[in-house]
Amino acid sequence: MRRESSAWTGPWDSTNPYPQQALSYRKAIAFQDAEGRAGRLLPWVLTVDGRLAGQVHVFSIVRGAQQGGTIGYWIAERYAGRGITPAAVAMAIDHCFGVERLHRIEINVRPENVNSLRVVEKLGLRDEGVRRSFLHIAGEWRDHRTFAVTADEVGAGGLVGRLSG
Question: What are the N-acetyltransferase domain coordinates in residue numbering (predicted)?
Answer without folding.
Answer: 1-146
